[in-house]
Amino acid sequence: QVQLVESGGGLVQAGGSLRLSCAASGLTFRNYAMGWFRQAPGKEREFVAAIRWGGGSIYYADTADSVKGRFTISRDNAKNTVYLRMNTLKPEDTAVYYCAAASLDYGLRSQHTYDYWGQGTQVTVSS
User: Fold this and answer.
1) What single-letter DSSP state applies at residue 104?
2) What pLDDT was estimated at residue 75?
3) Are 10 and 123 in contact (CB under 8 A)?
């Protein structure tokens, strides 16, 4: 049984930092691309970042309120864990953050690409 378990969320002041972790089990982690998505209240779930199998290709959301330059995705295949380091947090980053695993290595900005999802971890940024 595949499990993805996120941790590291919490309440932080604007400008602060958090590091989210997602521990995977029940799958051959190194064979999966991993992604982070988030869903704010009243909004649809959106792509945040993704990293391919070997970590050589990384993608970040490319929106007006982009996380690029503030967030860093990484993975440790020895620990079956993917991370999301979030710096300079803003109130608009408040959301439930989900990690996901994809057996495909393309289309990683789309949530429909992913095979497995975690339960999510809440991140709240106060102003």
Assistant:
1) S
2) 96
3) yes
